[in-house]
Amino acid sequence: MKLLRTVRFDASDEHVYARAAVAGEWAVSGLFAFQADDGEPFTGKLRQAFANGFLGLASFGRSTFAVVTEITGEERVALGEALARHLVEAYGAPDIAAAMPVAEDELAFVSDLCQEAAINTVFTVRRTHDEARAITEEFRTILPPSAEPRHARIWTVEADDT
Predict the structure, then answer these.
(1) Could you report the per-residue pLDDT of 2-25, keeping only the tens digit for each?
(2) What is the DSSP-derived secondary structure letter of residue 4?
(3) What is d(CA 141, CA 122) in angstroms, rounded to the nearest whole number?
(4) What DSSP letter does each residue of 104-152 carry, written as one string?
(5) Angle, to 10 degrees, between the axis of helix 73-91 and the axis of helix 96-114?
(6) Using the 8-state DSSP alphabet, how is residue 75 labeled?
(7) 3-state SS, residue 92
(8) What pLDDT digit, counting tens, does each position of 106-128 carry?
C-alpha cells in the first residue's frame, strides 16, 4: 500500500501556513477542511492552505509537498482512527463511528492517487474555486531529472571467505 508523507525542501512552509506540517508526517489532501465555505474569499495564510496545502496527520498542519511512500496495514488503520478523532474534535463530527467513513474515504482517495506513482514521487496540489464556488483540485507530480533508480543502495552483502 502507498500513501503520502509530507516533505520539506526549505523552511517556506513555516512562513506561508498558519500551522506547518512537520516533515515526514503521513498526509492527505485535506480538502474537507474547506467544504464549509461561507462564500467569502480566503485570504492570507488560509488562502495558501486552501490553494496549495496537503494536511499532515500528526500536527494537522499544512505542507506544500508530499512524497509517495509505502505504508503498512497497521499504520493505515491507526491513521484512519486518528483522522476520525480529528474530525470529531476539530470539525464537529458527532462521534468516531460517524467520522470513520469520511476518514477512510480521505485515505482511500490519497492511496488511489499514489497507486500508479513510483516510491519517492513528489506531489503538489492546486485548488481553485470555479464561478459557482465549487472546488477543483489538481495534483501534479515532480519527477527526478534523470532516469536513475530512485532508491539508493546503502549497503551490500558479501560472502565471508572464513
Answers:
(1) 999 999 999 999 999 999 999 999
(2) E
(3) 5
(4) HHHHHHHHHHHTTSPTT-EEEEEEEE-TT--EEEEEEEE--SS-S-SS-
(5) 130
(6) H
(7) coil
(8) 999 999 999 999 999 999 999 99
According to DSSP, the β-strands at 135-142 and 122-129 are: antiparallel
Q: Is residue 134 pLDDT above 90, yes or no?
A: no
Q: What number of other Cβ atoms are within 10 A of residue 90's Cβ?
A: 10
Contact 49, 17 (CB under 8 A): yes
Q: pTM for the full model?
A: 0.84
What is the Cα–Cα distance from 83 to 102, expressed in whole angstroms?
Answer: 9
- Residue 62 makes CB contacts below 8 A (sequence gap 6+) with 13, 17, 18, 19, 20, 21, 30, 48, 49, 53, 54, 55, 56
**Placement of cell 492570507 in the chain:** 44
Q: What is the distance between the alpha carbons of residues 55 and 25, in angstroms, rounded to a whole number?
A: 9
For residue 32, give Cα distances in angstroms to 20, 36, 64. Answer: 18, 8, 17
CA–CA dist 11, 125 (Å, integer): 18
